[in-house]
Design a protein that fits this description.
This protein is α/β, with parallel strands linked by helices. It is built from 5 helices and 11 strands. Helices cover about 25% and strands about 20% of the residues. A hairpin with a 5-residue loop joins β4 and β5. The longest helix is centred in the first third of the chain and has 22 residues. It is globular, with a radius of gyration of 16 Å.
């Protein structure tokens, strides 16, 4: 089986596990998840200005719930804007009061004519992760390209704990995460 086939099967399994987990999760626990920036992460973000979030789709971990606390910490927030179907994405400044505009693949982003910003930290969705800090995304390469474009940005994966895998295949272009935040723990990579 090729790495592409492995990743396709892993994506299917990850979506099924995530959906089953969220169906069984207590509604209160779901509403409270990801409402706070843990202290170790807050310390890592202390000297950073711009933090890129995302608007969670379907059953993705909801990064937008971190916005109030990040704003209170004085951070400029940004959301991704998918530019094309070839994996191009930039980040636009955003506040929770801003109207969002529909984008590709069901995404939403700030006013498209706004200036792009360079994030100091990128909080990324994922389908799976492992303890070696590998991330399994949707397969379009958007975040891989963003991580490469902003090599100094702190790479943070946001996930439900059930999305952890024993090991994930990694291609040469896959950049490992620095931190993974789940509803139950903060995992820091060896270089964190």
């Amino acid at each position: 089986m090729s790495d592409d086939t492995d990743k396709t099967a892993l994506r299917t399994l990850a979506r099924t596990r995530r959906r089953a987990f969220l169906t069984s999760l207590d509604p209160l626990a779901h509403r409270l998840a990801f409402k706070a920036v843990p202290s170790p992460l807050a310390r890592r973000l202390a000297d950073m200005q711009t933090v890129a979030l995302y608007m969670g789709l379907d059953d993705e971990a909801p990064a937008q719930r971190l916005a109030p606390q990040l704003t209170a910490m004085g951070k400029t927030l940004a959301l991704p804007r998918v530019i094309d179907r070839l994996g191009s994405m930039d980040f636009l400044a955003w506040t929770p009061e801003d109207q969002l505009h529909p984008g590709l693949y069901g995404t939403h982003h700030p006013e498209p004519s706004g200036p792009a910003v360079a994030p100091d930290a990128i909080i990324a969705p994922l389908l799976g992760f492992d303890r070696t800090m590998n991330r399994l995304g949707q397969g379009g390469g958007y975040y891989d390209r963003a991580f490469a474009r902003f090599p100094d940005a702190l790479r943070i994966g946001l996930a439900w704990s059930v999305q952890e895998q024993d090991a994930l295949p990694a291609d040469p272009w896959d950049l490992p995460l620095d931190i993974i935040l789940t509803e139950i723990e903060l995992i820091e990579g060896p270089d964190a």
